[in-house]
Amino acid sequence: MSKSVYVSKAAAVAIVTVAALALVTAIGMVIFHNVRIQECPQLLSPTVLTTTMAPSEPMPEMRLPGNLIPESYKIYLRTHLYSNVTDIENQNFNFTGNSTVKFKCVNVTNTIYIHSSALNVTLIGVADEKGKEMATHQVHLMEDEREFVIIELVDSLRIDGLYYLSTEFHGECFSFTTIGLSVSRYTDERNDERFLASSGMEPTNARKLFPCFDEPAMKAVFNITIIHRKGSIALSNMPQKEQVEMDMDGEDWLITEFYPTKKMSTYILCFVVFNFESKETNYGSYILKTWARPEAIAAGHVDYAHSITGNILDFFEEYSGIKYPLGKLDQVGIQRFGAGGMENWGLIIYSESILTYESEIYTTREKETTAIIIAHELAHQWFGNLVTMRWWNDLWLKEGFATYMSYLAMDRVEPGGNMKDLISIREIQEMLALEARSTEEHLTAKEESIQSSFDINNLYTSTTYGKGAAVLRMIAEFLPEGVFQKGVQSYLKAYQYNSAETQNLWSHLQRAVDNSSLHIPVAEVMDTWTQQSGYPLITINTTSGEVSQEHFCLSTEEKQNLTWQVPITVMKSSSGEIKSDLLTVEGPVSKPVYRCSGNEWILAHVNYAGYYRVNYDPDNWEKLLQQLQTDHRKIPTLSRAQLIDDVFYLEMSKYVNITLALSITKYLLKDTEYIPWETARKHLEYIIFMFDRTEVYGPMKAYIRKLVGPLYDHFENFTRNSSVPHSHTAQLNLINAVKVACAIEHPKCQKMATDLFDRWRKDPTTNPIHPNLRPTVYCSAIASGGELEWDFAWEMLKASPGDQERDRLGKALACTKHVWMLNRYMLYTQDPELSQFVDMFSVISSIAKNVVGQSLAWDFVRSQWSDLSEKKSKMTLLHLIDEISHRFCTEFQLQQIKEIQVTDGEHYYGSKILEKTLERTRSNIKWMEEHKQTVLQWFQMEAS
């Protein structure tokens, strides 16, 4: 989009007046051309300033210089969108507006730097607090990545002086994205397309909507007025203050003014314009409204999300010691929203699939996802919105906190289910796996290394979220009960409506520690986790009592000489008492707490309280295995999962042998808890993927069938009746029992799946299969069936109105063992009429997960590469290659991947994806060569 900058000196004197004018007069003056003629004719001929001269003083590299601090904005924004137009050709994607920002000068300067991007900007002028015009020397628009408008004044601004900068702007909405001001399509109950406008400012997109000081520490008060077509609804961060109707150009418009915001950052400013309806609850101190398409409200699909929101807010108020500070909270569900949720203060936007929940369609895991994302975005109302990181290099302060706190809040939503423990497999295990392979990212980056929008966007990684949550949980568990919370409360109160850095958090935690008479150097401990990548392996010799640490990494080439300060929790079998130790050196060092005698065993990293792995001497490993076999309940549930995960990764890095890793699964015959089973399932799935085309598969299948049999029997009454247990984690493990049992063709599971599917096929109007069982039942029935079952599922997919059911059926159709059906299914993705029902990426990656379809999917993509490259980006195709190749474990397959080329424009990310795929394949090849015979013999022995 072309950009231009104008200066109108005659208008500068009006700045202060503009800020004080009544609503309608202000709008008429600075936004609408036809009214502006009557109010301010002197603005009709702005002085157009065009110059190629460089600024007279050195420009900052990327950041705002900090000479000027915004205090408040007065923004009028007019959206021209027709919310009820069905023909996109008749839609108007333009927006216009003006902004007056009041700012304070803290260092003498005659230059104003302010952000603007993708806008046509008209500079009205600059004035001091008395209304005196500030003469302008030059104006520049930097079209590079700095995205600055630079205004050079004739005279310098004085320290502590207050000034007003007023601009007009117009731009075009981004179509169907989540940046700046965007337009989204949705379908109504008649399946007609409608439109809505919504803003997405994080991290650096407010500048795409209006000129502003677009940095998180540049907090200000925002006075927002939205002008929108009559018949539509406008929402913003704060409650509506006033609304008037006005005729403009022969059309009816609404002018909606909102109360001033709290002091806040630009990235959480938000508004929407739509025709939705809401469910409302008045909680006294605030009003909660949950908005969605009218038919979704009428059907009660937002009821679950709406009902848990109040409970979650109550939890955060109690935990933080600070009441939710706004008078209202709006939650909006938007179809095809590009993210799970966005925490705009007082106006949270979600993907509609997250905000809506239908008990007759959604699985327990999908219900959990709804709750955890809502809790995450609500946590941000305190961690991020109330207290904001000073600069993006500390992004983890909001995202790590929101991730960690969301699991604590989940216990309020689903009491009795140990929901907070799910962080161990959802975040900690995932991050330990990721950092075992890649150790490039630090949790906190150096401030000077994060400058451009590109740098900032690259911080939104699983490290920032997952590892951030893990290290917070580690220090919270290491400190005595209540100490961490007291430190957090102190931190929030000290920096509310302001910004903070990581060291500020450590300081307040240190105060809480000192007040409890402990002697723990918080910053010294935690800096080793936030300023270093990776994590340690703790090695314990229970005979000598020696403990040591080293960087754990699957690749010996990537290992670094790093030392962490490691909070270690330790339990001995003789007492069951949990003790804490802090390992601050590489070691080995000898400590009595790690020494055993007789038949005593040691368990470290109790309850997954830290972020590290543990290895023991062979004798202690053997004692732990014996304890699991004898009475696994003597070892805490989370620790059982940690032992399973650690031993499999220790085997991958050659610290222990494969038979020890496989042997630890034997005790699962007696365990019915979800978290250990889910951990084991992921590792067994990898072994299946490696060997399901070899002679190992027969005895392996027999062993796993024997292993899962008791778990399946434990839940059989529920599966037979298509019902679920009360506990959330029990529901999740029921899914595991059925998934594993049907995957290895357990007779009871296969019969259950076939019977339920046949009942549905004979009466398609009533689906007797519980949503939790549908993915597995559909897949198993189609795998053991033929054309009749496949065609029925295809017809049900085409008739399905919801994304969830369509996605389940789409994946299940890839489970057939008939190659010709799989080939036909892939061809459907190329058919213009049929491809509307299925996604090519999903179909091919699902077929590749089927042992029968692996080579078929690979050959299809390679043969269609040229055609696919014209329809999809190379990045999408490389992600597809990565999905397809999970089973690859031969040199021939490795060479085939190497033949794929990365184009220039996507070279960096493309090469990263490709290298990851290649590295995994090399690892698979090596693992197979080293373990095939041993694994075969072990399964042959244990399957009997």
TrEMBL record:
Its EC number is 3.4.11.-. Residues 601-922 form the ERAP1-like C-terminal domain. It is a single-pass type II membrane protein. Residues 304-529 form the Peptidase M1 membrane alanine aminopeptidase domain. One of its GO terms (molecular function) is zinc ion binding. Its cofactor is Zn(2+). The record marks 465 as: Transition state stabilizer. One of its GO terms (cellular component) is plasma membrane. The active site is at 377 (proton acceptor). Residues 70-268 form the Aminopeptidase N-like N-terminal domain. It is found in: Membrane. InterPro entries: Aminopeptidase_N-like_N, Aminopeptidase_N-like_N_sf, ERAP1-like_C_dom, M1_APN-typ, Peptidase_M1, Peptidase_M1_aminopeptidases, Peptidase_M1_dom, Peptidase_M4/M1_CTD_sf. Zn(2+) binds at residues 376, 380, 399. Binds 1 zinc ion per subunit. GO terms for biological process: peptide catabolic process; proteolysis. SUPFAM superfamilies: Leukotriene A4 hydrolase N-terminal domain, Metalloproteases ('zincins'), catalytic domain. Keywords: Aminopeptidase, Glycoprotein, Hydrolase, Membrane, Metal-binding, Metalloprotease, Protease, Signal-anchor, Transmembrane, Transmembrane helix, Zinc. It holds the Pfam family Peptidase_M1. Belongs to the peptidase M1 family. PANTHER family: AMINOPEPTIDASE (PTHR11533:SF259), PROTEASE M1 ZINC METALLOPROTEASE (PTHR11533). This is Aminopeptidase.
